[in-house]
Amino acid sequence: MTPLIALLFMSLATWRVTRFWLKDSLIENVRMSLEGWLSKNVTKRRHRKLLELITCPWCISVWVSAGFTALWRWQEGDGYGWFVTGLVWLATAAGAMAWWRTMEDA
Question: What is the arithmetic mean of pLDDT over 90-105?
């Protein structure tokens, strides 16, 4: 799969996984429980950062896109090199947020 096609699919998948975590009701209880626990312990720096990470679509999308990019790299092998892999990762996160702004902020 070419990097551009992979980028399109991975940005859509990243947007969907990010939305699933932040907005879907299927895991709402888990999400609220984790956010509540972290909010009670927000005085600890690592809890504050983790709370920010799990509630911010920009933050989550970076790590979700890293996972998809790692899977793409594993499937494709070393054919594209680390530089292209890094560009695909960043572009996937940016593409996911473009989808987020289009679908969620409309």
Answer: 88
